[in-house]
Prior knowledge:
This protein is mostly helical. It has helices spanning 5-44, 54-84, 98-118. The radius of gyration is 20 Å and the shape is rod-shaped.
Amino acid sequence: MSDPRVFFAAERTLLAWVRTGLTVMGFGFVVARFGLFLNLLAAQSMRDSRVDPRVSDIVGIALVVLGALAILFAAVQHRGFVRSLPAADLPPSHNRTFPLLVAMALGALGLALAIYLAV
Length: 119
């Protein structure tokens, strides 16, 4: 008996990890740029107290890397799980590589964003 619901449940799980990783990466980008925003506010108000943006940069970059790694690890785990399924559970009309390619590309772009923020 074939049951493609197992395969589609695995794809939904991959999608959930991709959404979570993108959210963490987006939040990390906002945090990384928050120190710059505070410095601009301080400069406009003519205050001498400047906020050190290094703390927000470090935390933001760490969040971006965490989100990218979550996506990449989820893609690797998904691939391994799909390979363990019997052929009867894999829908023949469904492309199994496209979700993995998208997840890998998003993870690589997240790591590239972390490098951009660090430079």
